[in-house]
Each structure stands twice: as C-alpha cells, then as structure tokens.
From TrEMBL:
Full protein name: Alpha/beta hydrolase
Pfam families attached to this UniProt entry: BD-FAE (PF20434)
Protein's organism: Winogradskyella bathintestinalis
UniProt signal peptide: 1-18
Top-rank taxon, per record: Bacteria
Length: 296
C-alpha cells in the first residue's frame, strides 16, 4: 500500500511539473527590481517558436505579486496544457503604502501616472522577451497581453493607448501584440482603439463592477467633486470598438456581477485558448457574447 501511495505522489508531482520555470530580471527602476517568471513546455524542439501569454497580476497597484497562486497557476497551465510560453511579471506597485490608495482620494493626476507607469513596465517586460526571442523560443507575432483588475488596466493601456501614455514609442516598435485577455479591465479612452491596434480580445466583466466600470463611468464611481474622479471605458465600450473594426472578441458578461469577475476564469480556459487558436493562429473572425447571471 505504501508503494502505491509513493507512486501516486510521484505521478502527481510529475504532472504538476511538466513545464520548466526560470526567473529573470527585466528591469531595475529605483528601488524596484522587476522580475519575470517564464514557464516553458517540457519538450520544445530546437527550431520551434511558441506563442506567449504575458500576464500582469491585479491588486489595485498596491499589492499581490507575479507568483500569486492563481496567476502562477494560469501561466503554468498555458505552458503545460496549451504549449505556450507562460510569463508572469512584476511591476511597480506605485500605490503601495500611500495614504490615498487608488480610490476617490487618489488624485486624477496620480491615477494617470500610475496607469502610465504600469503600461511602461508592461511594455518593458514585453521588449525584454522580444529582444531575447531566440533564447526563449518565442514567436514574436503571437504574443497575448493579459491581466486581471489593475493588471488588466495596465495591459489595456499598454496595448491600446501607447499614443496617449508613451512619449518615446520608437523604443517599443518591435512589440506587436496579437491578442488580449482582460478580466475586469478598462482603458482611459476607447477612442484610442483603432483598426491598427485592435486585436482579438477575451473580455470578462460584471455589469455591476463597483471598482472598474463595465461601460463608460467614473473609476471607483467617484463623485465629480472628488479628487479621484476620472472617467474610464470598460469592457462594454471596448467590445463595441472591436465590433466596429470587425475584430474578433469573446465577451463574457455577468449580469449583476461585481469586481469578483476579475478572478481568472479557470473553468473557461479551454474556451479562451481555443478562441485564440482560431483567431490569432487561424485568422478566423469570431465575435461572441456570453451572458450569465450572477448566482446568489
């Protein structure tokens, strides 16, 4: 009986480690040493180039980390089950330890600077990978930008709003995202989504999200007289822009859902990656809305 138990434990351990992980420093900014965890499928041919999921964790720009269990589980899944390079990144948590946090007491200018620097950190991580594409065996034409909550805001602004936030765009000319995976994210202004930067996108959002608006509304629903009043465009507006450009999307709406919809939808990951396989790899155009009702 003990032998059987030992064998089972070894099999389980092998199954969970069927990918390789390495950690790299992609930038040092002030007191922040920013690292990435890179998960690679266990058996990759020498001449093989794989698609990438480049993931940015949530946490209100003040907490969490690249190896948080759910974020770690996602990038491991991408490598083990989908034959992707799965990458989870650090970024500067500019609201950590501040008295105003990231709510209605945080000024508009501070929020804009936080969004800007998060987008820059994300683009710097992407550039680090692209510049070492041969070493990582990356297909640079198939990079999916992904994130949840604050991470989704950082990613969406990096993908769609470089013209607004980035002064020296030529530094990132080698980066072109092929897909986007956002869990409860929003952009500063959806008018910056164009035919040139629109990419196949997976969007998850609750209609009653109290922090990141589902449609066009103030961040954290701050009153106009509050310092933190700033309008954002959420997933509903983003999906409309993608539809306008006949760009693929897979829009998951949870009626009555609040910010808990920012969680990574592990139960749907096979559908998410199938969508990217069809649109990013096979160039199909698919526009799907899934409407669910929040369970009591």
């Amino acid at each position: 009986m003990k032998k059987v138990t030992i064998i089972l434990v070894l099999l389980i351990a092998y199954g969970l480690s069927a990918q390789n992980m390495e950690t790299f420093t992609y930038a040092i900014k002030g007191n922040d040493t920013l690292k990435i965890d890179v998960f690679t499928p266990e058996k990759v041919k020498k001449d093989e180039r794989l698609p990438v999921l480049l993931w940015m964790h949530g946490g209100g720009f003040s907490g969490s980390h690249r190896a948080f269990p759910d974020d770690n589980k996602l990038v491991k899944y991408a490598a083990k089950e989908q034959n992707y390079i799965g990458v989870s990144i650090d970024y500067r948590l500019l609201r950590k330890g501040t008295t105003t946090g990231f709510g209605c007491d945080c000024t508009k200018d501070e929020k804009l600077e936080t969004f800007k620097q998060a987008a820059i950190d994300y683009l710097d991580a992407a550039r680090y990978l692209v510049e070492r594409a041969d070493m990582f065996q990356i297909d640079t034409t198939k990079i999916i930008a992904g994130g949840s909550s604050a991470g989704a805001e950082g990613v969406l602004n990096a993908v769609f709003m470089k013209d607004y936030f980035i002064e020296h765009k030529e530094e990132y000319k080698s980066i072109k995202f092929a897909g986007l995976f956002s869990c409860a994210g929003a952009v500063m202004d959806a008018r910056y989504i164009t035919e040139d930067n629109a990419v196949p996108s997976v969007l998850y959002h609750g209609t009653e999200d109290q922090l990141v608006p589902f449609g066009n509304a103030p961040h954290h629903y701050c009153d106009p007289e509050r310092d933190g009043y700033i309008m954002l465009d959420g997933s509903e507006i983003i999906a409309k822009k993608l539809e306008e450009f006949n760009t693929s999307y897979y829009f998951n709406i949870v009626n009555g859902g609040r910010h808990e919809v920012s969680r990574i939808p592990f139960e749907d990951l096979d559908k998410v990656f199938n969508f990217f396989n069809q649109t990013m790899i096979n160039d199909e155009v698919i526009q799907t809305k899934i409407i669910k009702t929040k369970q009591p």
